[in-house]
C-alpha cells in the first residue's frame, strides 16, 4: 500500500484548471492569439506550412483578413460574411492541412491551447 502511494505521487500531474484560462480570456480576449496557437510546431505537424505567415501568404488572393492574423485573439471567429470567401478559405484549409475546414482547424487549435495550458506549456501575458 505504501508503494502504491509513492508511485501515485511520482506520476501525479500538476495540471492547471482550464476555467482559469477561460477567466483570463474573458478578462482579456487578446491574451492568446492565433499566433500563439498556430505556432511553427503546430503547423508543421498539422499542415504543409512551417509558419502562420506562410499559411496566410499562400491563401487565395480573394481572401483578405484585413488584419495581421497572428495578432488576432483566438476567441475571434474570423469567419467571412462572404460565402464565396468562406468557401475558398475552407477549401484552402482542406487542401493544405489535416482539417476539413477553417472551423475544424480553429476547434483543434482551441483544444491544443487548452492542453498546452493545462500542462503548463502555454504562458499567458496578463
Largest sheet: none
Judging from the principal axes of the Cα atoms, what is the shape? globular
User: What Rg is obtained from the alpha carbons, in whole angstroms?
Assistant: 18 Å
Mean pLDDT: 82
Total of DSSP H or I helical runs spanning 4+ residues: 7
According to DSSP, the number of beta strands is 0
| H/E element order | HHHHHHH
Strand proportion:
under 5%
Number of domains: 1
Stretches with pLDDT under 50, minimum 5 residues: none
Percent helix range? 40-55%
For the termini, the CA-CA separation is 43 Å
Structural class: mainly alpha
Helix-strand layout with pairing:
Blueprint: H1 2-11, H2 18-27, H3 34-37, H4 40-46, H5 52-57, H6 83-96, H7 102-119
Textual characterization of the structure:
With about 130 residues, this protein is an all-alpha fold. About 55% of the residues lie in helices and about 0% in strands. It has seven helices and no strands. The model has no long low-confidence stretch (mean pLDDT about 80).
Descriptive tags:
126 residues; mainly alpha; 0% strand
Would you summarize the structure shown here?
By secondary structure, the protein is mainly alpha-helical. Helices cover 55% and strands 0% of the residues. It is globular.
Amino acid at each position: 500500500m505504501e508503494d502504491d502511494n509513492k508511485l501515485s505521487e511520482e506520476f501525479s500531474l500538476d495540471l492547471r484548471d482550464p476555467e482559469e484560462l477561460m477567466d483570463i480570456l474573458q478578462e482579456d480576449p487578446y491574451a492568446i492569439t492565433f499566433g500563439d496557437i498556430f505556432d511553427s510546431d503546430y503547423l508543421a505537424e498539422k499542415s504543409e506550412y512551417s509558419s502562420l505567415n506562410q499559411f496566410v501568404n499562400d491563401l487565395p488572393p480573394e481572401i483578405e483578413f484585413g488584419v495581421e492574423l497572428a495578432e488576432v485573439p483566438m476567441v475571434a471567429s474570423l469567419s467571412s460574411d462572404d460565402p464565396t470567401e468562406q468557401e475558398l478559405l475552407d477549401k484552402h484549409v482542406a487542401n493544405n492541412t489535416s482539417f476539413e475546414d477553417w472551423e475544424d482547424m480553429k476547434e483543434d487549435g482551441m483544444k491544443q491551447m487548452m492542453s498546452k495550458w493545462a500542462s503548463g506549456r502555454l504562458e499567458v501575458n496578463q
